[in-house]
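#data-curation
PF: Archiving a pair of folding outputs for the training set. Convention for this channel: one message per protein, sequence first, structure tokens after, nothing in between. First:
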Amino acid sequence: MAKVVVMPKLGLTMVEGKVAKWHKEEGEEVKKGETLLDVETDKLTNQIEADTDGILRKIFVQRGDKAPVSSKIAIIAAADEDISEYLDDDVVEEVSSEAEVQSETKTSEKVVAKKQSGYIRATPYAKKIAAEKGLDLSQIGGTGEEGRIIAKNVLEFEADNKVKISPTAKKMAEDKGVDISQIDATGRIMKQDILDALSMTDYASGDEE
């Protein structure tokens, strides 16, 4: 089901917000927990994370534009979902356009999280995912504002460090009680790697007898 993204209320006195930056373009895939956009108020800039998976089908409020709190600023939906009912112009109220958007090409580089008095800059959702998966945030690079760790960084770190193993090898390892984290394999762990590990275990057991 389509998700309407609205301008969030980031303070008791906030009545409108300015889109400082979109981190995704129309047509791009969005994952829950990824930074979707930056919203600027008269006090500070906040990173807003997506709260659902899908495709960023439509952006109503462009970079540099302002919109009232709770007004529609984007639509996230499945690629083949009909979103025509969400495209009515009268639903969207853009307050003003401050500047013409200029093209900007910038490569986002991961910044290693810095500990300051034991504190690591990370979004609450990123911390939650890391805790659930038992990951050390200090080992994860952040691409958020000032190197802040976002959920996407945690998920990418997990994927990059996840042991890759074929289904057959995985089943064999489970059946034989082989610890795949101890297998030194080049690339994906295959059935032969499990057999080699078993033969080494049998050899070691024979030496001890």
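PF: Second:
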Amino acid sequence: MNKEIDYIIAKLNKLKKRVFDKKGLVSKIEEADSKADIKKFTKAELVDYCSYAKIKTGDVKDKLVNAVWKHVEDMYEWESVSETDSDSGSSDDSDSDSDSD
């Protein structure tokens, strides 16, 4: 059973590494020196990197990964706030559209 899991993890690790190597994402993120550098990456790239790092290390206690996750969480919070705002804004817009008709 454990051998199967190890095999699957190894396969995923190779697949992830190959995908990231094409984009050069792993080294780019690992070379990031500051939060400002990390902010240059898209949320999807950071989530992918965290997934890759978790598979690679089997853990997410890595300092960089934690910093990246924190940034991703911050981005999610901002998005959920802005989505809520834009939803209410959209309904206001549609109300004013129907008024002008």
